[in-house]
Each structure stands twice: as C-alpha cells, then as structure tokens.
Amino acid sequence: MWRRIRTNRGVQVALGTTFAYYFKAVAHTTRFVVEPADIYARIEENLPLIMTFWHGQHFLTPFVMKPHHKAKVLISRHADAEINAIAAEKLGVGTIRGSGATSPRDFHRKGGVSATYALIDTLAEGINVAMTADVPKIARHVGKGVVVVARHSGRPIVPIAMATSNRITLKSWDKASLNLPFSRGAAVAAAPIWVPRDADDAAIEAARLLVQRRLEAATARAEALVGRGSAPALIDGRAPGEAAR
C-alpha cells in the first residue's frame, strides 16, 4: 500500500512541493552565519564548481547560492528520491538522476555512468553541480565519485557543511537532519580542491582523503557555530594542520 502511495505521481508532486515550501520557511526564519565571510567573492573566480556535502545534511544548500549561480544536483533514481527531485526543481535547482555505489555492478545499475557524464557535461556548459560526497549506505565516508568528476571536468571541488541549532535527526542510515524553523544556522565552505587530469590512482586517493578531511573540518565548524560542539575556524578554508604544510 505504502509503495503504491509513494510512487503515485500526484502524491510525489504534492510532497515535493510541500518540502520545497517548508525549507523556504526554515531558511527565511534562520539566522545564518557564513564562513569564510568573503566566500562568494572567492568562488566567483572558480565557477563553475562542484559543491559536495554529506548525505542528509544538504536540504538547505539551495539557499546559500546567489540568484545567478545556476546549478544542478545529483539525485538517485530511487522512487523515494523523486520527491527530493521535485522539491529541488521547485527551488530552482536542476536535477541529474543517478547515484554512486560500492560495487561496479550497482554503479551501472543505479545510473552512475550516465550521471557521471551528465555532471561533466553540465560543468562544461558553465553550470555548477552539487553532489553528496559519501556513497549510499556508507555515511560520512567520501567515495571516489566526486573526485572522478573533478578530474575529468577540470573543475574544483568545494566541500560545504550546513547546520542548524534546531533540528530533528532522523533514524535513517545517513542520520539525516530535518532542519526546524527559527534556528541559528551556519554554512561553512572549505577551500577548493583541484584534481589533475593526469591523476593516477594514488593521486585520486590523496584527493579523496583531502575532501574527507576538509568536509569533516567544515562540518565540525558548522556545528560549533550553532552551539553544538567546539571546533576552530578553517584556516584559509583548510582543515586544521594543513596550513603548515
């Protein structure tokens, strides 16, 4: 019964539209702090770029973009994800369907190959793309997908973390955050990460680990800014310890 309901197009459109309006309300009633303060000036020279974030922590990211920042987001082909896709489009964000996976067989089955090409083509058109860094069912562990897209597109990866003081943590594999209105909010962007086109396996792994470190540092900082923990500011967008290298 539930499967028939959630795959009904009318129900999906209604829920997607409701979520879009809900997150608009959350964004408009949240007092956001952005770090670094000059992030928009910094990224202008690097457009288009690849925005990446953790699964389940991305619902408010459309609201940190400026009106002229065109973007498309990678969303899986799963039936439940159709609601997210509708919500994104209602918020003015285009969609690319497909997702990563831990095995080559699942990667093809879930549309990973076609989605990768679509992401690269979108960047070539001068449009930003957004995608989760971690692959399904393995939360907070950066996969190689975002690095591969950066390598073949020649565009930089910008790890982004957002947090709100008032939220509900859902009982899902990614512990998704349902942000609530009237909160303190924080958006933290790490420094861009470039991946050379001739990167070998070792260089790709090094880039993956760098995305991991910077996204973890950005997440900890965003949480600290809304009163959930303590973490130092990123130094020039880099994780603690990087600046000395």
Automatic annotation (TrEMBL):
DUF374 domain location is 66-138
**Matching Pfam families, A to Z?**
DUF374 (PF04028)
**Annotated protein name in UniProt:** DUF374 domain-containing protein
Q: Which organism is it from?
A: Azorhizobium caulinodans (strain ATCC 43989 / DSM 5975 / JCM 20966 / LMG 6465 / NBRC 14845 / NCIMB 13405 / ORS 571)
So which domain of life are we looking at?
Answer: Bacteria
InterPro entries tied to this protein: DUF374
